[in-house]
Amino acid sequence: MFKKYLLAPGPTPVPSEALLAMAMPMIHHRAPDFIPVLDAAKNGLKRLFQTQNDVLILCSTGTGGMVASVNNFFNKNDKVLVIDGGKFGERWSKICKAYGLDVKEIKVNWGYSIKPESVEELLKKEGNIKGVFVQATETSTGVNHDIEALGKIVAKYDDTILIVDAISALVAHNIRTDDWGIDIMVGGSQKGLMLPPGLSFVSVSEKAWKKAETSKLEHFYFNLKAERKKLKENQTNFTSAVSLIIGLNEVIKMLEKEGLANVFARHARLAHATREGVKAIGLNMFAKELPSNSVTAIEAPQGVDGQKIYKVLRENYGVTAAGGQDHVKGKIFRIAHLGYADRFDVIIAISALEMTLKTLAYPVNLGAGVAACEQVLL
Amino acid sequence: MFKKYLLAPGPTPVPSEALLAMAMPMIHHRAPDFIPVLDAAKNGLKRLFQTQNDVLILCSTGTGGMVASVNNFFNKNDKVLVIDGGKFGERWSKICKAYGLDVKEIKVNWGYSIKPESVEELLKKEGNIKGVFVQATETSTGVNHDIEALGKIVAKYDDTILIVDAISALVAHNIRTDDWGIDIMVGGSQKGLMLPPGLSFVSVSEKAWKKAETSKLEHFYFNLKAERKKLKENQTNFTSAVSLIIGLNEVIKMLEKEGLANVFARHARLAHATREGVKAIGLNMFAKELPSNSVTAIEAPQGVDGQKIYKVLRENYGVTAAGGQDHVKGKIFRIAHLGYADRFDVIIAISALEMTLKTLAYPVNLGAGVAACEQVLL
């Protein structure tokens, strides 16, 4: 008996309720059976996104949603600002450059959060920035950016929209799309929403739709105007990913039964417990500011390879966490507490980490981390 | 008790073996558990595609695979030929035009098949056609195009590639990718492969890869060169649609247990039985040439609305077939015999059609269509 535990920042475990719903017989995406399914999904997504805007449903990974947020709203040579504090900030830059946008970057050291005033300064200095791209949670570092503060700044500019990658932050954090002035927000199925990969979600404000009117970038597959039109008829532009959307309705039901406020609080509590456990073990957090509720990035201790920790966690203890990416590969490892996660997932993570360090001959007080966790979780 | 029967040309019914496999606990797409899964899937796809070429796996609908076949291999103003004999031929044109290609079209009347010699003539006349786009089965009309003949013609041109949308033909027809000289072939999950929508597959020949070297069209999400590189490591470029790929391995197992030759023969037999049943009822086939083994398009009889037949089939008899699209809406309806289909699916379809026509007060000899079906299926 060797049980497996998926504690990576996506895909995350899928609850049986969703798995079983998705195992029901296939229905046709243009037949009337599917109308109420998509109707429920689109309305549920609006509640999760805390928005009155349309939330469009795309058959793609989260990156597809990011691409759609670029190629529907801008034109070649449009000047945009990308806040790049990790692997996914970098992805915004790559996508914008692939479409010929004129990208200004604010590089944020990995492990740190953007200083909103630096964005304000740059917007003032440059004058004609058309869009500000940012992550709510930067998955590669476990750091959040202050979206509320950025929303206030961007709202001052009539021709500038705020585009937020909330793929790994959605439902782990209370992100108030409309109240905070988020023009475009991207989500994905395989993170807090506890589904298999295959769907991305994009909410679009009226301010952003106005920009879409003049956008001439190629967007045949990710055509949000066409999606918006079809969504009014409870359809998607191309074939709907029927099963995943059926699963989506199940997880929306589960999240709303728990209550969104409780869902946010649970993620905050699990993240807090994880950090306390890690500290009690004697390790350092990689996030120096605004740690995420979705994923905790931990520095590998002196002399221990972070990838080795990832490997022993998985091979000896059945825990699939995540390693570090790019220049922090080997230097950090990451444990998620995202989606279908409760207190004992954190206990498992911290216990497995204690045993892993012991296995790697690193001095550790067995049980110290777990005790600190329990203190928080009690 | 009101059982439902999905007899539409995609999505098609998903066998329990695949549904249950996809309901297994989630695994991580970058962890070693997934390596053998993707390895099996990519090798199985090669066998289904009858190719030694890479078959790339994309998280998208079939249309995404079609887009990838355009924006990875061509450049703006490249002259290409689209064979347009229906809704999906038209889609090739729309995609090519969206990317700025110079599109020459051969329009084929709906219900008819391309005359290969007309392609030969046009290639000669134009001189510098870079690609020929065609459907193996045009789903909107139930007509096939002669891919083998087109392959022989295109092979004579060193700088011209043949791009085949086999989304609804794959495994319903014996399509010999390599032997016939198909440079790019697109498949989808929700047709003959009996899976939910969400995956597309693209095979690419060396001749096509050569063209990819000089292609400068935007393709951030559908980047086949990046997919090829990742596939060698048994990964996909972005997050893998883990569940669907697990399901894919199940259906590949099922298809190979049956034997590909038997799978093709079964589709041919079911299509033949459907046509004989329809004729015995006294209705006419919409396909005047090369009828598809995947889907049969049937003309609504004089004075009966085809959409009404679709509606009564579904509402009174629980059979979800398909109506007609665009200018043949109301004039035809379509019955699929694709994927997870056996003889009694055809019997159900023909029996439901007999009862539907009776319900609509159209004169019909009850049982005559079914008898003709049985003659074929015996």
Can you walk me through this structure?
2 copies of one chain form a homodimer. The first copy, chain A, contains 13 helices and 14 strands. In chain A, the strands form 4 sheets. In chain A, strands 2-10-9-8-5-3-4 form a 7-stranded mixed beta sheet, with helices on both faces. Chain A has a 3-stranded antiparallel beta sheet with strand order 11-14-13, covered by helices on one side. The first copy, chain A, is 42% helix and 16% strand. Chain A is globular and about 60 Å long. Chain A is an alpha/beta fold. Chain A has 2 domains: 5-10 and 259-377, Aspartate Aminotransferase, domain 1; 16-257, Aspartate Aminotransferase, domain 2 (3-Layer(aba) Sandwich), CATH 3.40.640. At the A-B interface, helix 1, helix 3, helix 4 and helix 9 of A face helix 1, helix 3, helix 4 and helix 10 of B.
Q: Helices, strands, pairings?
A:
Two copies of one chain form a homodimer.
Chain A: E1 5-6, H1 16-22, H2 34-49, E2 54-59, H3 62-71, E3 79-84, H4 87-98, E4 102-107, H5 116-126, E5 131-135, E6 137-138, E7 143-144, H6 147-154, E8 161-165, E9 184-188, E10 199-204, H7 206-212, H8 224-232, H9 242-258, H10 260-281, E11 295-299, H11 306-317, E12 319-320, E13 322-323, E14 332-336, H12 343-359, H13 368-377
Parallel strand pairs in A: 1-12, 3-4, 3-5, 5-8, 8-9
Antiparallel strand pairs in A: 2-10, 6-7, 9-10, 11-14, 13-14
Summarize the structure.
Chain A has helices at residues 16-22, 34-49, 62-71, 87-98, 116-126, 147-154, 206-212, 224-232, 242-258, 260-281, 306-317, 343-359, 368-377; strands at 5-6, 54-59, 79-84, 102-107, 131-135, 137-138, 143-144, 161-165, 184-188, 199-204, 295-299, 319-320, 322-323, 332-336. By secondary structure, chain A is an alpha/beta fold.
